[in-house]
Amino acid sequence: MTTMTEGSVREFKMPDVGEGLTEAEILKWYVQPGDTVTDGQIVCEVETAKAAVELPIPYDGVVRELHFPEGTTVDVGTSIIAVAVGDGAAAAAPAQEAAPAAAEVPAADEAEEKKPEGRQPVLVGYGVATSSTRRRPRKSPDAPAQEASAAIQAEMNGHGPVTRERPLAKPPVRKLAKDLGVDLATVVPSGPDGVITREDVHAAVTAATAPAETPEEAPVAATPAPAAPAPAVSYDTARETRTPVKGVRKATAAAMVGSAFTAPHVTEFVTVDVTRTMKLVEELKQDKEFTGLRVNPLLLIAKALLVAIRRNPDINASWDEAAQEIVVKHYVNLGIAAATPRGLIVPNIKDAHAKTLPQLAESLGELVSTAREGRTSPAAMQGGTVTITNVGVFGVDTGTPILNPGESAILAVGAIKLQPWVHKGKVKPRQVTTLALSFDHRLVDGELGSKVLADVAAVLEQPKRLLTWA
């Protein structure tokens, strides 16, 4: 992840966060040339196609140069910041003005360097490793980007050189492979520096049916551009505003297009009286077991869906195109769609099926607050099995949600409104909402989808079923 150069200057490179992504955008610098930094200090925030991530610097020193401005998209393995360390730190300020070219050239006879035992800074959300590491011998400047990515990841994890790494591919290509059930490790790449293209994925597919095309991604550059490109920002003309599509929004758009044209969607609707559920929400707010926890209708809706899945486990599944198999999951990672300034993300609650109601409330609260702060880690958005999207918070009655890629069902919850309703033979004002369940018709037929939606509605109409159906 770092490179020692002449003059005791270290180059900190854009790391791979472990997802096999090939680039990230620099959102914000927290340091400037001349600033003193310490081991583990956050120096910048970057955005991948998965999430925003803060990067810590792994040594002490003085910032000598920021190689790219905010808003620049940088390839993994490209140096983004130079830091003077040791004896070179004292001369960092004058060296910044002179900026001799020789100081930026790696020493030809550089040997392996030992790192001290102790804390090894890693990306937010991936924990901290304590170990002693030895850096691998330097590769030549024109070594493939695939090898550079492997070395970066190995150093971040506190291990030696890796023998097998995650194949390089753009997010839309990775998503396409997932939809088709193709293992990227088995695909022969044809793109620059070993990057797998859409054509490579299609060539590996043996099944007769393939998904519709999605927009092509630009090829990855073989080497970093000599000069930093101008940051892509929104700009106004006389009559319109144009904003580049990138990061989370770009990945979401590609995923939704792929999902819509890969899985045959069916959506069913039901309108239900949730008056008793709303009363239970108010009662739980006063319960000491929920002290300090946020209790709202979404909590009971999530629990109702988990009960429905337990009663109809085949809904919690995925389609394996390559193997031509339906994979039923015996766990529920419950996704909650969250709108953020950077776009829609779907973090999920791991093993939600095993949580008590207070535990589920705590997990929901943490998920929502983390998403709003823009600190959702890539790991939190992986492995979802079923999703809830709450369009009711916008005052919307219902919708036809698109499946999260790799999942077979998604539940949309509409606004809860006071409406006239026939209750016990009389028309009375009741709290009513409309639920919509979209499902993949390849593996979920109308009977199964209807049973799941009916069970969710039944629990919300009579929440005591949370006990009798448990």
- Radius of gyration of CA atoms, rounded to a whole number: 26 Å
Q: Roughly how much helix do the residues carry, as a percent range? A: 10-25%
Provide a count of the helices: 10
The portion of residues forming beta strands comes to 15-25%
Largest sheet: 7 strands, mixed
Oligomer: single chain
Low-confidence stretches: 93-164, 206-232
Give the termini separation: 50 Å
> What structural class should be given to the helix and strand makeup?
alpha+beta
Shape: globular
Total beta-strand segments: 24
**Overall mean pLDDT:** 77
How is this structure best described in words?
The protein has 470 residues and is an alpha+beta fold. Helix content is 24%, strand content 24%. It contains 10 helices and 24 strands. The protein has helices at 92-98, 145-156, 171-180, 198-204, 247-262, 275-285, 297-311, 357-372, 446-461, 465-468; strands at residues 2-5, 9-13, 23-29, 36-37, 42-47, 52-56, 61-66, 73-75, 79-84, 118-120, 129-131, 235-236, 241-242, 265-273, 317-320, 325-328, 334-336, 338-340, 343-345, 348-349, 386-390, 409-413, 417-423, 426-440. Strands 14, 17, 20, 21, 22, 23 and 24 form a 7-stranded mixed β-sheet that branches. A 5-stranded antiparallel β-sheet has the order 1-2-9-7-4, covered by helices on one side. Helix 3 (171-180) packs parallel to helix 5 (247-262) and helix 7 packs across helix 9. Residues 93-164 and 206-232 have low confidence and may be disordered.
